[in-house]
Amino acid sequence: MKRADNIRPLHARTEALLRRLVRRDAEAAIRKVLATTRPEDIAAAMEHLTWAEQRRLYRVIEDQGYAADVLGFLSDQSAVEVTRSMTEDQVVDLVNRMEPDDATDLVGLLPDALRDRVLEGLEGESAVHDLLRWPDDSAGGRMSPMVFRMPDTATCGQAIATLQQQHSELATSHYVYIVDHQQGLVGVTSLRSLLTSPPGTPLVRIMTREIITVAPTQDQEEVARFVARYDLLAIPVVDEARRILGVVTVDDVVDVIRSEAAEDMLLMAGVSEASDHGGILQHGWRRAGWLLATIAGGVFASEIIVSYESTLEEAAVLAGFIPVIMGIGGNVGIQSATVAVRGLTSGAIQIQGALPFVWREARIGVVLGLFFALMLGLYGYVRYTASDEAFIGPAVACSSLLAIAFASVIGSSLPIVFRRLNVDPAIATGPFVTTLVDILGIAIYFNVARWLIHS
User: Fold this and answer.
1) Is residue 165 part of a domain?
2) Does a structural domain hold residue 412?
3) Mean pLDDT of 40-58
């Protein structure tokens, strides 16, 4: 397939047309769209197709280099489905054409038997073998081994000549990494400094010695925080001897942020990781777990309400404010938990120094509690002061104050506890917070009301 010169982004209307062409199996028309479309856009469009349609579209691609690029931009599930019906030789050919980090991701997704055969068929000592040693969510699993390094005895002119000779291999280079005779990393300089310095200038004169590095086992979220905090385009991955193993570039960091954000959103909604594909029963089963946990919490809360049956018999009007106490406490708890998760993810909150954050959220909860206590207490006083239920106003006011204050503490501290236990803190913003806060709010409400009734 010959690539056209007028490559353009795939707009929504063209994307809809592509989907219709795939469903009609109009190969000639599909090739015309492919010839003028970037592989990133084709990969994005494929995510809206069924598995069978994705495989049908991918088979139409004739240019294997273009096919490898598309495969590198697909989601994990789509990549698995597209390669499912391929032969071993076809997969090996595509992997050899991909960037090492993308190829490593793909090989890691393959079934065990096929993965072993593909690794045997790779050209020479492939970098994929080395990258597969590290976990997928680590710096080593995310890094690219294509590093622009120069000896500390080199000049700017020599570095520029090397870059010109190896430009095809160093297409994503943002920095020059300077190493000593033992290949230990001693400095770094930007390409801008390299190009704006006289050719005879030694690299050691323009390099920065204070280098931000990460270990290959470092979690990808921490790597993303470093890149964002220090405004880097790439961050080197080094071993214990300071030998540079590879670099994690900013486009990899964007992928990390996007995948982590998507995962956190699913966990915050109480939904397990899932794609848009699958049957109704599959989707229902994925969501059932957290809903069962919510039901269990609701049943427990109902048992607490039943235990206060005598109090309800004395003042049935108390039942009308149960949703108010539960609703306001649950929402405050989720707000605090969301702020905590965001702080833990961005690095603004550290486990060792989390107490000031929890204390701040507790004070915010008290302020909110006072505001809503005044509002609800005033309503209860005006509404029931002329009846025998004059205690309703003070009961609702005190209960809402305590429920909101405790909800702030629970919501802000639970994600920190989960992080301490090496569990994703985003899970705390789901049923855990709402269930705990609901149960605590009901207990506070009925105990305060019973005390006021009998006082």
Assistant:
1) yes
2) yes
3) 88
